[in-house]
Specification:
The protein has 20 helices and 12 strands. It has 464 residues and is mostly helical. It has 4 domains: 4-74 and 230-300, HUPs (Rossmann fold, 3-Layer(aba) Sandwich); 77-227, Rossmann fold, CATH 3.40.50; 314-368; 377-463, Orthogonal Bundle (Arc Repressor Mutant, subunit A), CATH 1.10.10.350. The strands form 5 sheets. Strands 1-2-3 form a 3-stranded parallel sheet. A 3-stranded antiparallel sheet has the order 4-5-8. It has a two-stranded antiparallel sheet with strand order 6-7. Strand 9, helix 6 and strand 10 (223-227) form a beta-alpha-beta unit. Bound molecules: glutamic acid. Residues 8-10, 42, 185, 199, 203 line the site of glutamic acid (GLU).
Length: 464
Amino acid sequence: MSVVTRFAPSPTGALHIGSARTALFNWLYARGRGGKFLLRIEDTDKGRSTDENREAILDGLTWLGLDWDGAPSSQAANADRHAAVANTLLANGHAYKCFSTQEEIEAFREKARAEKISTLFRSPWRDVAEADHPDAPYVIRIKAPREGQTTLHDEVQGDVTWSNDQLDDMILLRSDGTPVYMLAVVVDDHDMGVTHVIRGDDHLANAFRQNLIYEAMGWDKPTLAHIPLIFGADGKKLSKRHGATGAAEYQALGYPAAGMRNYLTRLGWSHGDDEFFSDAQARDWFDLGGIGKSPARFDFKKLENICGQHIAVADDAALLQELQDFLAATGAAPLTETQNDGMLTAMYCLKERAKTFPELIDKAHFVLTQRPVEIEEKAASHLTDVSRGILRELTPQLQNASWSRDILEGIVASTAEAHDMKLGKLAGPLRAALAGRAVSPSMFDMMLVLGQDETIARLQDASR
Ligand code: GLU
């Protein structure tokens, strides 16, 4: 059996980080098994669904690198098919027409409340023959079992049992002929050939209602996996109070997509003690058995740590491309060609300890800036008369040097020694001259990246 998973967001908001994780789990499960990952936009709530939200969701998935198979489908576009299934159930006796009015239903509930019995509506039309039906508006309701229990197996939750008397004869088709959401989900999942439904455990109760439709239609049921929600560090449902909640916010904060994927995969799923892994490993390892039963806690420190590791091992050109995408997505000015070249040369030393793109850009300041280098106050304090003198001394030596790390280290070390100084003492003035900052990549990396002419020119600027 080939695996088909789906992500079925409602475009009533942007892509929440929890939904992004749901999409990721579905994507990993399908991709690791040569299966398909489908995208269905559940846009039946006309009042709250917007095109902007739909676009934001697609953008978020694209940023995260979660590619889907085929075109995204629209649930609303399938309304006729949903209605047809409701009519099939009516024809085969698994559903019935209910003519109860809103007032009658309300009266039923009030009476039930007064008698302290279940307020689930029990329609008097369930067993009334067609011949006795009035010519009046009706809804189509499913005939749910009233006795016994239903047990559903869930790959995360295990066997979950519900008492059938908790299920009402839910409406399938409203009196205006529009299908309800619960019916649409089942019909679409069936028609799309979905084999595995992996979604938030806030949908677990729905699974029992949806199960009625599968049973009544005699359709194969998908494997279920209801995953716990994501909590904040305090053990409460992740919300704005904890920090960013939208996928787009993480993009804007400059987290690399590979790091996000790794962190979100690990959030609520485990493979032994592995914390840092590649996409290929995640695809190979991901399974439903590794999903935890209790809510995972979002840990920003861990996210940063994982992101830093991914930046460190990323391919330089790919990292530069992602940095350019980051700048574009945040509306920042694009890099010039010279800056791009500089970034590419410098990348090996920039990516060592950067956890986000803003950090990478900050470290790259020395290569992004131009002469005359503006010198920050903190850095300027390193440019004393004495240190300026030493920079002046360095210049002719550097002019005659061949430009390799060993040689440069030798020159700076012997100059420091000649002045009875530790090598580190020269880092301050050199950083100030080359980057205009007190914090920067190492002086030798900067010299190597900037090259001989530019290095000497910056030292001369600063030592004047
Ligand atoms: N549209 C639902 C949601 O956004 C998902 C339904 C499902 O996965 O079955 O929560």
